[in-house]
Amino acid sequence: MLNTCDLGTHVASAALAMLCASACSDSGAVEVTFLFPEAEELSPLGEQIAEVVLIRTAPGTPLQRTQREMAEIGRAIDMGFIEVGEDVRITAELRSPNQRLVGYGRSPRTTISPGDTLEIRMHLRKPFLYVTGDTSIAAFDATRDVGEPGLRRSITAFEQPAAAVASPDGAHLIVVARDGTTWSLFRLSTSDHASIQPESFALVAGAAELQASDVAVSDDGRFAVVGFTGDAGGVSVVDLTADPTSSESAAFTQLGNVTRVNIDGSAPAHARAHALIDGGRDCTDGPASTIASVALGESAPDQPPITATGPVSDVAMLPTGSLLAALPCRGEVVIFEPDVAPDTPSESLFAQISGVSAIAVTGDRVWSAGTLPAEVTEPGGENQGARLVLVSSDVAGDDRISVELPALQERARAPAFSDPGEETTRQIDADNIVAYDLAAVPGNDFVAVLTRGWFHASAQGIGPVFPELFVSNREYMLIDTATGAVVQRVRTLCELTAGPAVVGPWECTLAPGQLATESAYEPLGIAALYGAR
Amino acid sequence: MIRDAVIPTFSLGVVVALGALMVPRPADAEPESEPKRAVAVLEYRDGSPALRNAAERVAMILSQKTSLSVLAPKDARQRYGGELDKRVANCAGSARCLRRIGVELGVRELLLIGVSQFGDVILTLQRIDIQTGTVLVRVAEAMASDAAPGDEQFEAYVRRVMPRSDFLRFGTIRIQANLTGATVVVGGQKRGVTPINPIRVRAPATYDIRLDKNGYVPFRISVAVPPDAEVEVKPVLAPSGAMAPAWYKRWWVWAIAGSVLAGTVTVFAATRDSDDKVPVTINPF
């Protein structure tokens, strides 16, 4: 730190900054108050905090980042000065001694004026990821590595939770789950992972035959949009500020088989939801996808649907209001400009990514997950299984960073011949592996994916001694974006088929660094607290 | 770049920014060093549970105290795969065998931390050159079975096996003044006149910088230079006869710190250069 304080000369000094914070503040001040979770095990205060960071963002102005070493809990921290302005958003990061993000908070957009004293309150939370698709929600603590306690918690408050998204202020997890014979939208406190706001929003009457596929929330927290699959599917638009018991709090629009939803909230009055219809990755028989628009804001204009040239697997919104779409069969991420005239080409290339299957936009970064195909050489040569690739760029497609993950393998084991207590294990490369959902953890240090993998091993030996093996699995992974290292890997499903052989029977076992859930299930979606997908 | 975000336009004052150092820059104060030497720290134990996390602690000391690019055991396992510990164990301390692991890890050297127990605990540190597959230095230390050496003791072991030059770290001061011909003095040493090349200095350390030119108010500043980082100073020397502004406008107040993350030095600064900024504090928690 700068530490010279020499009055009468031009000397930069942190100590002086602290003096001036009190001596010069004749024109207003900003106080930031952190609201921590009630449950100790969910609180960043249970972690070792070495550094606190404040980041100021506002449209049209440069990002301002200020950080301080965390000297002592229980004392106010002078963070210097912050520029006044409108539409200012302040985010806070707490980092551990090894720079791992252990706490994160984000304020609503606000105006900071020179003469005002303003208190900004924000919910400080650990970076949690929530996976839906079982009879409970699995909450993964991104501050933990495999083997550390507290990595995974179960939230058992819901019957068949299908989709979830965190509210923009981080206070709630918005959960779509079955509620008897219908689907409802619940708000779960992120403070204790247990409290649910008493009133839930009933989404669509008689929707028992529908399956909720996705949920998105607008940037101002006013609207939630829920997608439903099936021919009678569509979207439910929920006004979160309305009385949940009112019939006008949720409205269903039938659109067809909606697999993904997103909200363009770049201008609240023109806000609208985008629904991906017939989304998928089937390059052989899959239908061309359509993206339909549903108005949310009072002044949102009508918008014709966009028909893609093939299957679209995922959509995401750029801050500019443009729509990103992942086209896995073309290996392209494209930009659709929804507002252009019907006869105008509305599609432009954003990035080429092999087998791109999932995308997310978080702040100023775009994340994409794709697949590098398996490399199979002649017999006796070295094969390499399919691998995931993560690509990050800025919102213009520049500053591109690509991280290839190591080839992931599954393991199968069987008793070895007749020797008791001995067993044999086979490592099986992936023929294909697809990230079908992706969520970026705030700070961009980690990205989480849900994957489906297909693994295959040939028969070996005369007999054969070892059978041909097929494995299909589902996994959750948390990936360190700087290194590509998989820091959390949890398998939720492993289905193994083995041909006839001398050695058997075969069953799935764990690879190093891999965990497995007690019950098998297919994860449906993933959400990151304060993150994006 | 974040740097752009923290260097507003000034009519008078100083801008100090901690800039990204993605590429080594030329320096005239210290000789250019090679790119960071990559060293992997691995652990091999014969079943002894003593000195838990010994290798991780050694890796942390190397990361904090040296200019090396250190691959800690945990990171090495992630890079290499789950068989690493087994492969290391199978090598049983053989440098030629371990060389192959080093090649696959892409490092120049391995530092093998061995923990054995024959009544006493035997801690060994072997520094292995990957190119030749030879042991450069080997030290062994015996201690009681319940010994718990502290970080200082571990650092002492590390200093016995690593060259002294590894413990030197550097940063860079980049000076961009508003005029040419000003004499630059850094840490009491005259370094030249503006425009001046980036100056490479030992880090972490705090340096007094002075710029002088006849007819101008001398410029003085004290800057803290973190290791592997660049501190950018943009002094503005004012004519000595110029009207002095109000005292609070003469003070350009900056707070600087940084952290190295994935090769980038993060920039931040806070200043009050006009009424368009207000102080910000975080309430106690």
Account of the protein in words:
- The complex is a heterodimer of chains A (533) and B (285).
- Chain A is mostly beta strands and 533 residues long.
- Among the domains of chain A are: 14-123, Immunoglobulin-like, CATH 2.60.40; 358-519, no CATH class.
- Helix content of chain A is 2%, strand content 49%.
- Chain A contains one helix and 39 strands.
- Chain A has one helix at 14-23; strands at residues 29-35, 51-58, 61-69, 77-83, 85-95, 101-106, 110-112, 117-123, 128-132, 137-141, 152-155, 159-166, 172-179, 182-189, 201-204, 211-217, 223-229, 234-239, 250-254, 258-264, 272-277, 290-295, 306-307, 314-317, 323-327, 332-336, 347-352, 358-362, 365-372, 387-394, 401-404, 409-415, 423-440, 446-457, 469-480, 486-498, 507-509, 515-516, 525-528.
- In chain A, the strands form nine sheets. Chain A has a seven-stranded mixed sheet with strand order 37-32-33-34-35-36-38, with no helix packed on it.
- Chain A is globular and about 85 Å long.
- Chain B is α+β, with helices and mostly antiparallel strands and 285 residues long.
- Chain B is 20% helix and 35% strand.
- Chain B has seven helices and 18 strands.
- Chain B has helices spanning 2-5, 54-65, 73-80, 84-91, 95-105, 151-161, 247-250; strands at residues 14-19, 38-45, 69-71, 109-118, 120-129, 134-143, 170-175, 183-186, 189-193, 199-202, 205-212, 219-225, 230-235, 255-256, 260-261, 264-265, 269-270, 277-282.
- In chain B, the strands form five sheets. In chain B, strands 3-2-4-5-6 form a five-stranded mixed sheet, sandwiched between helices. A four-stranded mixed sheet of chain B has the order 1-13-7-10, with no helix packed on it.
- Chains A and B meet through helix 1, strand 1, strand 2, strand 3 and strand 4 of A and helix 1, helix 3, strand 12, strand 14 and strand 17 of B.
- Strand 4 (77-83) of chain A pairs antiparallel with strand 18 (277-282) of chain B, so a sheet runs across the interface.
